[in-house]
Amino acid sequence: MATLIKEFTIQAPAEAVWKSIRDVGGVARLFPGVVIHASLEGAVRTVKFTNGLLVRERIITVDDDARRLVYAAVEGRTTHHNASLQVFTDGNESRVVWITDFLPDTLKDAINQLVEQGAATMKHVFAEKCSGNKSGIDSQVAEKKRQKNQD
Fold first, then answer.
1. Overall number of domains in the chain
2. What is the structure's pLDDT at 129?
3. pLDDT at 7
4. How far is CA 150 from the centre of its chain?
5. β-strands 80-90, 93-103: how paired?
6. At what angle do helices 14-22 and 108-131 cross, to 10 degrees?
7. End-to-end CA distance of the chain, in Å?
8. I need a surface site. Which of 32, 40, 79, 150 has the fewest CB within 10 A?
9. Residue 64 is part of which domain span?
10. CATH no. for residue 44?
11. Helix (H, G, I), strand (E, B), or coil: what is residue 9?
12. pLDDT tens digit string along 79-136?
């Protein structure tokens, strides 16, 4: 089983970061340009990525005290997929730890690419929120859509 551990800092208070992560139906707002659509039916979230991948994820835990979200892919390319996102206070910033376990191991590069894109996008979203400027987010989404339409 492959495991990816991505740890990164976001220049925003942990409460604000957690509020966005815990909004499991709003994942497209947290990852613009990576996720183009998400819907939530009960405890199952359906996520469509900009690369065309469609994944159904069961929300396992939303723990406000630990600021931890756990989800598992129930449909998609993996035979097993379980992930968690946890937010920690780090001074005036947040430290996010994203752990993903999955099978088959051969998907490591593809899943790592999505995690890397997701982490970079999340950092960008909060940088834009803190600066009060949403134009960077809008232009990033527009560029991803333009690239997708060219393919």
1. 1
2. 78
3. 97
4. 25
5. antiparallel
6. 120
7. 33
8. 150
9. 2-150
10. 3.30.530.20
11. strand
12. 999 999 999 999 989 999 999 999 999 999 999 999 999 999 999 998 887 766 544 4
**What single-letter amino acid sits at 70?**
V
Upstream peptide bond of 13 is cis (omega within 30 degrees of 0): no
Structure tokens at 108: 């490591």
Angstrom distance (rounded) from CA 50 to CA 32 = 9
Residue 50 to residues 63, 79, 131, Cα–Cα distance (Å): 28, 22, 26
pLDDT over 70 at 137, yes or no: no
- pLDDT tens string 51-70: 898 999 999 999 999 999 99
> Residue 60: exposed, middle, or buried by beta-carbon count in 10 A (0-12, 13-18, 19+)?
middle
Contact 48, 37 (CB under 8 A): yes
Reading the block at residue 14, the tokens are 């942990």
